[in-house]
Amino acid sequence: MANTPIIELKNIYKSFGETEVLTDFNLEVGEKEFITLLGPSGCGKTTILRIVGGFETPDRGSVIFQGKDITDVPPNKREINTVFQKYALFPHMNVQDNIAFGLKISGKTDQYIKDKIQYALKLVNLDGYETRSIQSLSGGQQQRIAMARAIVNEPKVLLLDEPLGALDLKLRQDMEYELIRLNNELGITFIYVTHDQEEALTMSDKVVVMNMGHIQQMGTPEEIYNEPENAFVADFIGDSNIIDGVMEEDRLVRICGEKWPCVDEGFGRNKPVDVVIRPEDIIIREPGEGRLDGEVVHNVFIGVHYEMEIMAGGFTWLAQNTTNFEVGSQVSIDVTPSNIQIMHKPQSIEEEAMEIDT
User: Fold this and answer.
1) Domain span including residue 204
2) What value does the CA radius of gyration of the chain take, rounded to a whole number of Å?
């Protein structure tokens, strides 16, 4: 995959009234990349999408597209299309008229439009739907038509603002794989916005985790999940045990009164740290055989494994295991050193929100 930036956001500031949403925000998006902006409501991710699409103008900063400043270029003059959560289809038009809308405005010939409609419907697996009414389509089919309408305009960049949010779980999962396929087949850069971590990890080449208008971490799904850079990322991406610890020395951390070998270095001696341990990384042993003894206080079967809460060392540990340990069972827990993630503790609320260089 090419690493050439197709979109660059440089020193973007944006406020709405007295509320500052983005502060000195910087981001590069590679050509043909599938990048996801992930974060809670109000973190600024949709504002970024709207700035890239031209629907919002930054108070300060620049939007660069293929090396040219397009900060003040209107949306209809950008080689960028958007698929919204509510699809924005015209209910009084049939499928082919919805798809053709932008092409007709551009003055394309009837034959060109007909060919493009057939091409787009084939891409989204809806051959033969040209004359169907929009109201007769399911939510998933409407989503595909919205995609087809965007695709026929041959954008260089496709913006997707939580387009799967209105779909049920099974259909949403099906559409995730469809979006991956379309990204691969079309070679279009996708910038996707969601608050759903599963969507982000499933589809993306790169995930940008945001909070309070700042980038908390940016990297591949594997990097984001396995190597969170702070407690916010660890807590937001998947389930985590986040525990107060003290880094006694390199490769040794004290958690819940016990010393645990780890692989991290450079934190100093006797320094307070945050310790992150994923629930699937907790090893459950017989009492006395692990590092901390405890008791199973909650247990639920969720399909592929049992999810348990284990009270040990004054902390309630979340653990996932394919073996069932019933509530009341006496157990011992352990963790492989490489599965213990050590992070600096933030010194202030402002530091928690500050952008981390990656």
Assistant:
1) 5-226
2) 24
